[in-house]
Amino acid sequence: MQTELARIAGADFVHVDVMDNHFVPNLTFGPQMVGRIQETSPVPLDVHLMIDDPDRWAPEYAELGAASVTFHLEAAASPVALARRLRSIGARAGVAVKPATPVENLFDVLNEFDQILVMTVEPGFGGQSFLPETMPKLRTLADEAKRRGSSVWLQVDGGIGESTIAQAAEAGADTFVAGSAVFGADDPDRAIQTLRSTASRHTH
Ligand SMILES: O=C(CO)[C@@H](O)[C@H](O)COP(=O)(O)O
Protein backbone atom coordinates (compact mmCIF):
# COMPACT_ATOMS: atom_id res chain seq x y z
CA MET A 1 0.00 0.00 0.00
CA GLN A 2 2.81 2.42 0.90
CA THR A 3 4.45 1.75 -2.47
CA GLU A 4 1.21 2.49 -4.34
CA LEU A 5 0.69 5.68 -2.34
CA ALA A 6 4.27 6.78 -2.97
CA ARG A 7 3.67 6.46 -6.72
CA ILE A 8 1.01 9.20 -6.56
CA ALA A 9 2.66 11.50 -4.05
CA GLY A 10 2.10 14.43 -6.45
CA ALA A 11 -1.70 14.06 -6.43
CA ASP A 12 -3.83 16.58 -4.56
CA PHE A 13 -5.93 13.78 -3.03
CA VAL A 14 -6.06 10.02 -2.88
CA HIS A 15 -9.53 9.05 -4.11
CA VAL A 16 -10.75 6.03 -2.13
CA ASP A 17 -13.64 4.01 -3.59
CA VAL A 18 -15.78 2.28 -0.95
CA MET A 19 -18.24 -0.22 -2.50
CA ASP A 20 -20.70 -2.42 -0.63
CA ASN A 21 -22.00 -4.87 -3.28
CA HIS A 22 -25.51 -3.43 -2.72
CA PHE A 23 -25.47 0.10 -4.07
CA VAL A 24 -23.03 -1.13 -6.73
CA PRO A 25 -22.29 -4.70 -7.87
CA ASN A 26 -18.75 -4.67 -6.51
CA LEU A 27 -17.11 -4.89 -3.12
CA THR A 28 -14.00 -3.11 -1.89
CA PHE A 29 -13.47 -2.31 1.78
CA GLY A 30 -14.84 -0.41 4.76
CA PRO A 31 -13.81 1.95 7.55
CA GLN A 32 -11.05 -0.24 8.96
CA MET A 33 -9.08 -0.28 5.71
CA VAL A 34 -9.75 3.38 5.03
CA GLY A 35 -8.38 4.11 8.52
CA ARG A 36 -5.16 2.26 7.58
CA ILE A 37 -4.86 4.24 4.35
CA GLN A 38 -5.49 7.45 6.28
CA GLU A 39 -2.65 6.62 8.70
CA THR A 40 -0.25 5.79 5.88
CA SER A 41 -1.03 8.34 3.20
CA PRO A 42 1.00 11.54 2.93
CA VAL A 43 -1.79 12.86 0.66
CA PRO A 44 -5.27 13.73 2.05
CA LEU A 45 -8.09 11.28 1.38
CA ASP A 46 -11.14 11.94 -0.80
CA VAL A 47 -13.52 9.12 0.13
CA HIS A 48 -16.25 8.18 -2.37
CA LEU A 49 -18.95 6.05 -0.77
CA MET A 50 -20.78 3.83 -3.24
CA ILE A 51 -22.89 2.31 -0.48
CA ASP A 52 -26.45 2.05 0.75
CA ASP A 53 -27.41 3.90 3.91
CA PRO A 54 -24.68 6.57 3.83
CA ASP A 55 -26.65 8.43 6.51
CA ARG A 56 -25.48 5.70 8.89
CA TRP A 57 -21.92 5.19 7.63
CA ALA A 58 -20.54 8.40 6.12
CA PRO A 59 -19.83 10.14 9.45
CA GLU A 60 -17.49 7.27 10.42
CA TYR A 61 -15.25 8.09 7.46
CA ALA A 62 -15.20 11.76 8.43
CA GLU A 63 -14.24 10.77 11.98
CA LEU A 64 -11.26 8.84 10.56
CA GLY A 65 -9.91 12.16 9.28
CA ALA A 66 -10.75 11.99 5.58
CA ALA A 67 -10.44 15.41 3.95
CA SER A 68 -13.69 14.85 2.05
CA VAL A 69 -16.48 12.32 2.18
CA THR A 70 -18.83 11.98 -0.78
CA PHE A 71 -22.05 9.97 -0.64
CA HIS A 72 -24.57 9.24 -3.39
CA LEU A 73 -27.69 11.37 -3.70
CA GLU A 74 -29.59 8.24 -4.85
CA ALA A 75 -28.73 6.43 -1.59
CA ALA A 76 -29.10 9.13 1.05
CA ALA A 77 -32.30 9.58 3.05
CA SER A 78 -31.43 13.13 4.20
CA PRO A 79 -28.64 14.53 2.01
CA VAL A 80 -28.56 18.03 3.50
CA ALA A 81 -28.61 16.81 7.10
CA LEU A 82 -25.85 14.34 6.28
CA ALA A 83 -23.71 17.01 4.60
CA ARG A 84 -24.12 19.24 7.67
CA ARG A 85 -23.03 16.38 9.90
CA LEU A 86 -19.92 15.72 7.78
CA ARG A 87 -18.98 19.38 7.90
CA SER A 88 -19.52 19.50 11.66
CA ILE A 89 -16.97 16.68 12.01
CA GLY A 90 -14.49 18.65 9.89
CA ALA A 91 -14.70 16.95 6.47
CA ARG A 92 -15.62 18.53 3.17
CA ALA A 93 -19.11 17.28 2.29
CA GLY A 94 -19.62 15.80 -1.17
CA VAL A 95 -22.64 14.48 -3.00
CA ALA A 96 -22.39 12.25 -6.08
CA VAL A 97 -24.85 11.57 -8.89
CA LYS A 98 -24.94 8.61 -11.25
CA PRO A 99 -24.97 9.33 -15.02
CA ALA A 100 -28.78 9.23 -15.28
CA THR A 101 -29.57 11.21 -12.12
CA PRO A 102 -30.65 14.82 -12.72
CA VAL A 103 -28.92 17.59 -10.79
CA GLU A 104 -31.73 20.16 -10.68
CA ASN A 105 -32.74 19.12 -7.15
CA LEU A 106 -29.32 20.26 -5.95
CA PHE A 107 -29.59 23.82 -7.26
CA ASP A 108 -31.29 25.26 -4.18
CA VAL A 109 -28.92 23.52 -1.76
CA LEU A 110 -25.58 24.02 -3.52
CA ASN A 111 -24.12 25.86 -0.54
CA GLU A 112 -24.73 22.81 1.67
CA PHE A 113 -22.01 20.93 -0.22
CA ASP A 114 -18.29 21.47 -0.78
CA GLN A 115 -18.15 19.27 -3.86
CA ILE A 116 -20.52 17.61 -6.30
CA LEU A 117 -19.34 14.52 -8.12
CA VAL A 118 -20.83 13.94 -11.56
CA MET A 119 -20.13 10.30 -12.38
CA THR A 120 -18.92 9.91 -15.94
CA VAL A 121 -19.35 6.11 -15.86
CA GLU A 122 -21.82 3.88 -14.04
CA PRO A 123 -20.28 3.51 -10.58
CA GLY A 124 -18.85 0.12 -9.66
CA PHE A 125 -15.74 -0.56 -11.74
CA GLY A 126 -12.57 1.15 -12.90
CA GLY A 127 -11.46 0.96 -16.52
CA GLN A 128 -14.80 1.85 -18.14
CA SER A 129 -15.25 4.29 -21.01
CA PHE A 130 -16.12 7.92 -20.31
CA LEU A 131 -19.79 8.75 -21.03
CA PRO A 132 -19.90 12.03 -22.99
CA GLU A 133 -23.68 12.23 -22.53
CA THR A 134 -23.03 13.33 -18.93
CA MET A 135 -21.42 16.58 -20.14
CA PRO A 136 -24.62 18.64 -20.72
CA LYS A 137 -25.64 17.93 -17.12
CA LEU A 138 -22.22 19.01 -15.87
CA ARG A 139 -22.42 22.19 -17.95
CA THR A 140 -25.88 23.00 -16.56
CA LEU A 141 -24.60 22.48 -13.04
CA ALA A 142 -21.50 24.61 -13.64
CA ASP A 143 -23.61 27.43 -15.13
CA GLU A 144 -26.00 27.34 -12.19
CA ALA A 145 -23.15 27.31 -9.65
CA LYS A 146 -21.62 30.32 -11.37
CA ARG A 147 -24.96 32.15 -11.53
CA ARG A 148 -25.38 31.66 -7.79
CA GLY A 149 -21.79 32.63 -6.96
CA SER A 150 -21.18 29.17 -5.48
CA SER A 151 -17.64 27.97 -4.78
CA VAL A 152 -18.66 24.29 -4.85
CA TRP A 153 -16.08 22.04 -6.55
CA LEU A 154 -17.36 20.07 -9.52
CA GLN A 155 -15.72 16.68 -9.72
CA VAL A 156 -15.80 14.08 -12.50
CA ASP A 157 -14.93 10.41 -12.08
CA GLY A 158 -14.76 7.56 -14.56
CA GLY A 159 -12.83 7.17 -17.79
CA ILE A 160 -10.88 10.38 -17.18
CA GLY A 161 -7.62 10.45 -19.16
CA GLU A 162 -5.70 12.49 -21.70
CA SER A 163 -8.44 12.09 -24.33
CA THR A 164 -11.40 13.02 -22.09
CA ILE A 165 -10.19 15.43 -19.42
CA ALA A 166 -10.34 18.45 -21.76
CA GLN A 167 -14.06 18.07 -22.48
CA ALA A 168 -14.82 17.63 -18.78
CA ALA A 169 -12.81 20.78 -17.96
CA GLU A 170 -14.54 22.69 -20.76
CA ALA A 171 -17.93 21.62 -19.42
CA GLY A 172 -17.03 23.08 -16.01
CA ALA A 173 -15.31 20.36 -13.95
CA ASP A 174 -12.49 21.57 -11.71
CA THR A 175 -11.65 18.33 -9.86
CA PHE A 176 -10.69 15.18 -11.71
CA VAL A 177 -10.48 11.57 -10.57
CA ALA A 178 -8.29 9.29 -12.67
CA GLY A 179 -7.66 5.62 -11.96
CA SER A 180 -6.43 3.67 -14.98
CA ALA A 181 -4.88 6.73 -16.61
CA VAL A 182 -2.62 7.15 -13.58
CA PHE A 183 -2.00 3.62 -12.30
CA GLY A 184 -1.70 2.23 -15.83
CA ALA A 185 1.06 4.73 -16.66
CA ASP A 186 4.75 3.89 -16.38
CA ASP A 187 5.24 7.01 -14.30
CA PRO A 188 2.03 7.81 -12.37
CA ASP A 189 3.29 11.12 -11.00
CA ARG A 190 4.17 12.29 -14.46
CA ALA A 191 0.73 11.20 -15.72
CA ILE A 192 -0.84 13.31 -12.95
CA GLN A 193 1.18 16.35 -14.02
CA THR A 194 0.21 15.90 -17.67
CA LEU A 195 -3.49 15.51 -16.82
CA ARG A 196 -3.33 18.56 -14.56
CA SER A 197 -1.80 20.75 -17.23
CA THR A 198 -4.25 19.54 -19.91
CA ALA A 199 -7.17 20.30 -17.59
CA SER A 200 -5.89 23.74 -16.70
CA ARG A 201 -5.50 24.66 -20.38
CA HIS A 202 -9.20 23.86 -20.88
CA THR A 203 -10.57 25.42 -17.69
CA HIS A 204 -12.32 28.75 -18.00
O1 LIG B 1 -15.66 5.14 -8.72
C1 LIG B 1 -15.23 4.74 -9.76
C2 LIG B 1 -15.93 3.68 -10.50
O2 LIG B 1 -16.98 3.25 -9.75
C3 LIG B 1 -14.03 5.38 -10.31
O3 LIG B 1 -13.27 6.01 -9.26
C4 LIG B 1 -13.13 4.52 -11.12
O4 LIG B 1 -12.57 3.52 -10.31
C5 LIG B 1 -12.05 5.33 -11.77
O5 LIG B 1 -11.29 4.49 -12.58
P1 LIG B 1 -11.00 4.84 -14.11
O6 LIG B 1 -12.36 4.93 -14.78
O7 LIG B 1 -10.30 6.15 -14.11
O8 LIG B 1 -10.19 3.69 -14.56
From TrEMBL:
Cofactor field: Co(2+); Zn(2+); Mn(2+); a divalent metal cation
E.C. no: 5.1.3.1
For this UniProt entry, the molecular function terms from Gene Ontology, in alphabetical order, are: D-ribulose-phosphate 3-epimerase activity; metal ion binding
* Reaction(s) this enzyme catalyzes, per UniProt: D-ribulose 5-phosphate = D-xylulose 5-phosphate
Q: Out of the domains of life, which is the source? A: Eukaryota
Pathway membership, UniProt = Carbohydrate biosynthesis; Calvin cycle
Q: Where along the chain is the active site annotated? A: 17, 157
The protein's matches in Pfam families, at most eight in alphabetical order, are given as: Ribul_P_3_epim
Q: Which Gene3D superfamilies match?
A: Aldolase class I (3.20.20.70)
Q: Which GO terms describe its biological process?
A: carbohydrate metabolic process; pentose-phosphate shunt
Keywords per UniProt:
Cobalt, Isomerase, Manganese, Metal-binding, Zinc
Entry's NCBIfam families? PRK05581.1-4 (NF004076), rpe (TIGR01163)
Family assignment from sequence similarity: Belongs to the ribulose-phosphate 3-epimerase family.
Q: What is this protein called?
A: ribulose-phosphate 3-epimerase
> What is the source species?
Rhynchospora breviuscula
